[in-house]
Design a protein that fits this description.
Elements: H1 19-29, E1 34-37, H2 42-57, E2 64-67, H3 70-75, E3 83-86, E4 89-93, H4 99-111
Parallel strand pairs: 1-2
Antiparallel strand pairs: 1-3, 3-4
Length: 112
């Protein structure tokens, strides 16, 4: 039993964060539409389903994008996913919204 063997060094995700990626993330934030921020887990997928149903029920013509890149997600200042972004503004994070909740958010934000 070897309790003190050396651990393998794993590469950190920080190598993905460079000036080019930061600038690209900032440009993507300016794009209109809906973005789901999250790793692609079941919660993120459920939020995406709710968003798609809400957009269809409200008959809106909005692009829906799912962002899984940590660098892009962090550019929004989101520390808890899944998150919902509408036209560059984080409108919800850390919660799986129901279809009705998404419809309410979209209705309020699209009017204002």
């Amino acid at each position: 039993m070897n309790l003190f063997k050396k651990k393998e060094k794993k590469e950190c995700c920080c190598h993905q964060i460079n000036q080019e990626n930061i600038e690209r993330a900032e440009e993507l934030k300016k794009e209109a539409g809906i973005k789901i921020l999250g790793s692609g887990c079941k919660k993120c997928e459920k939020l995406e389903e709710s968003v798609k149903k809400a957009v269809a029920e409200l008959d809106l013509n909005l692009t829906i994008t799912h962002i899984t890149d940590f660098g892009q997600i962090s550019s929004y200042g989101v520390m808890s996913t899944p998150a919902l972004v509408l036209n560059g503004e984080v409108v919800s994070f850390g919660k799986v919204l129901s279809v009705d909740e998404v419809k309410h958010i979209l209705s309020v934000k699209m009017e204002g």
